[in-house]
Amino acid sequence: MKLLQLFFFSFFIVQCFGQLSGEELRGGNGEGRDWWNLEHYDLSVNFDITNKQISGKNIITFRTTKEVVNPVFQIDLQEPMLLDSLVVIEKEMVVKQLIPSEFRKQNTYLIPLNDCIFKETSQYRVIAFFHGSPRVAKNAPWDGGIIWKKDENKKDWVSIACQGLGASVWFPCKDTQSDEPEQGVETHFTCPSDLVCVSNGRLTSTEKNEGNTTTYSWKVVNPINNYCIIPYIGDYVSWKDPFQGEKGELDVEYWVLRSNEEKAREQFKDVHLTLKAFEYWFGPYPFYEDGYKLVESPYLGMEHQSAVAYGNKYKKGYLGSDLSGSGQGLWWDYIIVHETGHEWFGNNITTADIADMWVHEGFTTYSETLFVEYYKGAKAGATYCRGERRSIVNDKPIIGPYGVNEEGSGDMYYKGANLIHTIRTIVNNDTLFREMLREMNQTFYHQIVTTQQIENFMSQKLNLDLSLIFDQYLRQTNPPTLSIKEKGNRVLYRWEKCIPNFEMPLVTDKGQFNITTEWTELPAEIGLSNNQYYLKSVQQKRKKKRSKK
To answer: For 31, phi and psi rounded to 5 degrees?
Structure first.
């Protein structure tokens, strides 16, 4: 009778969820998720490098948000990884559930927890056992997955990059940015004893095992998003380099391949410069309790919380080039600066939906401008920011569709940064602007946010209604066009190719004046800044015509 009930229940689940794609299930907050809040992961993984396989278990601690009876439990694990079994634990209650194939819905599992009553606001644990060969990244970090490589000394070098793709590419989890383990993560990674495994937070123990393997245990006490949880396995050496910050001494560590230590000791001097500048602009580093690590990785870089991935080949700029083309991007290490900036925007402040990833990438890309400005002055910073505009393509809106696990345009980086710079220019008060950035990181400290929350906060703090500007630049494809025409001896201007009722002021060296979608006469003898050269040229052209007459 039990098996018959289970069959019908599982059939019912397939019918109920059959209309939803796997990405809709992962991107939304459906009935397999909405009754529980994630509190902690205790993740154990064995890395079989020879066979390119992993296996392990994840102890998921959660607290219920409402009482449920015989609920469906959603856990995410992407193909070809396999979920073997699930154990539900509540005090003395232990329910083991084998995982039939019909429970799988693409990259998620929808598991009926029969004969289980979960009381409101009570704490429970689920142990998920898993194994398999994770998807291999073709071009990390842009194409996510696991990376199996060899270093220049033919030693194994393994890591993972999964932002966007999701951490469920390698371990079972609640794979959404909208719910982080509030009480942190413990990881126990087992690898061959001739290698070292580095992860987030602090190293708590090292244990030698039979079979010439070693288990490295690490602990994170702060909330952390899924894609930031990371193993780095390689022939690493390390050293400490404490930083005197706003909250006291910050533990800073560097982990690099043995053959690169000398180069790293010189290149990584940029870390202290970066932390100093960003604490000035954004407030204290958000994870003093977990420390800061820079770890050499077999890919370019990634903002893994408290364990930032570094793969810039010990070159200045972006692999030796200046992304801005301005001349201001070659005296500092792009990956150190950019990925460290994510500790504030992306890791401290995290968006609930990846559709809002511009908050992560726009503010972090603008952190590059602020870094340049901190050491070279406002003019140099603005030059760098304007230079990045050459990479804007205006292909689609920056904000993507909600609830389907889909990002918006890649313009979230450079267009997002220039949007922030534009708002700063409009405000024309750098003291207030800096206060806003610092207060933002205090107000949303270790929190999950939406774009709307960020918009509302900035508008309130800066005492400006920025809603139309955000709508134009984030939710539309093309930026507004400033149109100018001559009418007799007058020069008229307005915004075109924009949303209805759009207005945004233009800042000149003679002051600021507002521009709407209505034709308005340009004030006489207005002197415009060099970044509004097109207006000045129109006036000059008009004067030339007069002289010919």
So the answer is: -70, -10
